[in-house]
Each structure stands twice: as C-alpha cells, then as structure tokens.
Automatic annotation (TrEMBL):
<comment type="function">
    <text>Forms part of the polypeptide exit tunnel.</text>
</comment>
<keyword id="KW-0689">Ribosomal protein</keyword>
<dbReference type="Pfam" id="PF00573">
    <property type="entry name" value="Ribosomal_L4"/>
</dbReference>
<protein>
    <recommendedName>
        <fullName>Large ribosomal subunit protein uL4</fullName>
    </recommendedName>
</protein>
<dbReference type="InterPro" id="IPR023574">
    <property type="entry name" value="Ribosomal_uL4_dom_sf"/>
</dbReference>
<dbReference type="InterPro" id="IPR002136">
    <property type="entry name" value="Ribosomal_uL4"/>
</dbReference>
<comment type="function">
    <text>One of the primary rRNA binding proteins, this protein initially binds near the 5'-end of the 23S rRNA. It is important during the early stages of 50S assembly. It makes multiple contacts with different domains of the 23S rRNA in the assembled 50S subunit and ribosome.</text>
</comment>
<dbReference type="GO" id="GO:0005840">
    <property type="term" value="C:ribosome"/>
</dbReference>
<keyword id="KW-0694">RNA-binding</keyword>
<keyword id="KW-0687">Ribonucleoprotein</keyword>
<keyword id="KW-0699">rRNA-binding</keyword>
<feature type="compositionally biased region" description="Basic residues">
    <location>
        <begin position="75"/>
        <end position="86"/>
    </location>
</feature>
<feature type="region of interest" description="Disordered">
    <location>
        <begin position="64"/>
        <end position="96"/>
    </location>
</feature>
<dbReference type="InterPro" id="IPR013005">
    <property type="entry name" value="Ribosomal_uL4-like"/>
</dbReference>
<comment type="similarity">
    <text>Belongs to the universal ribosomal protein uL4 family.</text>
</comment>
<comment type="subunit">
    <text>Part of the 50S ribosomal subunit.</text>
</comment>
Length: 214
C-alpha cells in the first residue's frame, strides 16, 4: 500500500510502498468493532453505587396509622417512592471488563490500519525531530504536513526529548510510541503521522498477525 512520506521539515513529500496488511470485503470488521467496544468497556471504572431501602438511613416508625387516613397504607419512610428513600434497581459496583483473545486483537489492529490508510489518514515522516524544544518549531512542521487538521496522533518508535517537549502544548495533538499504539488509537484519530522507524515497528506488529492478512 502506498503512503505519503514527508521530509523531516514537512516541506516536500513522495509516495512509497509499505507492506501494510490488505483486506477484501468485510473481513476483520466485526473483530474491529468488538475490540473497540472492549477497549471502551475496560476503561469504565464501574464504581457507581446507590443505596437500597435496606441500606438507606431513616426512621423505622410507621408514617401514619394503618386505617382511617384515607390514603394508601405506608409502613416505612425508606421505601423508594418516599423522599430520601432507597433507590429501586439502582447501579451497584460491577466489573465491565471484557477479555479479547490475541488473535482477534491482532486482526482488529490490522483492519484498523488498513481502514485509516485507505482513507488517507496515515502519513509517514522521515523523522520527528526539532532543533529546540519550542512549540513554534514543531507546529511549523505539523502545519506543513497537515495544513488543515483536527485531532492528530503523532507516533514514533521512541520520541526525541526536544520533540516530546515541543509537542505537548499543541491543542489536539497526542503522542504515542509505536509499540504502545492500540486499535482504539487508530480508530479515534482521523490523522496519524508516523516516523519512518515507527512505521517499521507498526508493520512488524500488523504482519506478525497472520489472521490479519488476506
């Protein structure tokens, strides 16, 4: 698959062939959806909690006499329909985590890369580096590569210190090392800029998943 490769300053580019996984039809789409849902579910804390009528504090005194009031009989102030009463069927702490096997994760990662590259959202830069740790210098390179942009993910095999410091204050820009890149990252960002070393690591990960090749 051909991707745009930019020089380190982002001023010029050329196309180069990369051994990214290729897919036909809907292969891997279901796995991609399931893995993205699992990532989101695993990020949930699951600590929402409410008190039932047995746990809420309140008087145990009967509200009024059983007969003669002309209203429905009431035996407790802690019932759900009373003010400050317990909650009926409210949330309790629970574990939302989902387990996804390695084969499905690899397939989803490969499919996500294929989708992002097909849409033109994956670009390669020779090196992610700036002479000084200044946001202005990094922003100039970023603007040269993507004149109009929204949220951007910058991926490198290992970030140079100046580049990491210069990029951290730019709104909408996130950094990730190639070895830690997740399927959710690839799906979440419409524009991904990867260094030459980073794309090699990503391709090795993707093509190491035989289930992702077609």
């Amino acid at each position: 698959m051909k991707l745009k490769v930019y020089t380190a300053d982002g001023t010029s580019s050329s196309e180069k062939e990369f051994a990214l996984p290729a897919f036909e039809g809907d292969k891997g789409v279901a796995a991609l959806r399931q893995v993205v849902l699992a990532h989101q579910a695993n990020a949930r804390q699951g600590n929402a909690s409410t008190k039932t009528r047995a746990e809420v504090a309140g008087s145990g005194k009967k509200l009024f006499r059983q007969k003669g009031s002309g209203t429905a009989r009431q035996g407790s102030r802690r019932v759900p329909h009373q003010r400050h009463g317990g909650i009926a069927h409210g949330p309790k702490p629970r574990d939302f985590s989902q387990k996804i096997n390695r084969k499905m994760k690899d397939l989803a990662f490969s499919r996500a890369l294929f989708e992002r590259a097909t849409e033109g959202g994956l670009s390669v830069i020779e090196a992610i580096e700036v002479k000084e740790a200044k946001t202005k210098l990094f922003n100039q390179v970023l603007t040269a590569v993507l004149p109009t942009r929204g949220k951007v993910l910058i991926v490198d095999d290992q970030f140079e210190n100046n580049a990491a410091l210069a990029a951290r204050n730019i709104e909408g820009v996130s950094l990730s090392e190639a070895g830690n890149l997740s399927t959710l990252d690839v799906v979440r960002y419409r524009h991904i800029i990867v260094s030459a070393k980073g794309i090699e690591t990503i391709i090795a990960r993707a093509n190491g998943a035989k289930g992702g090749e077609s």
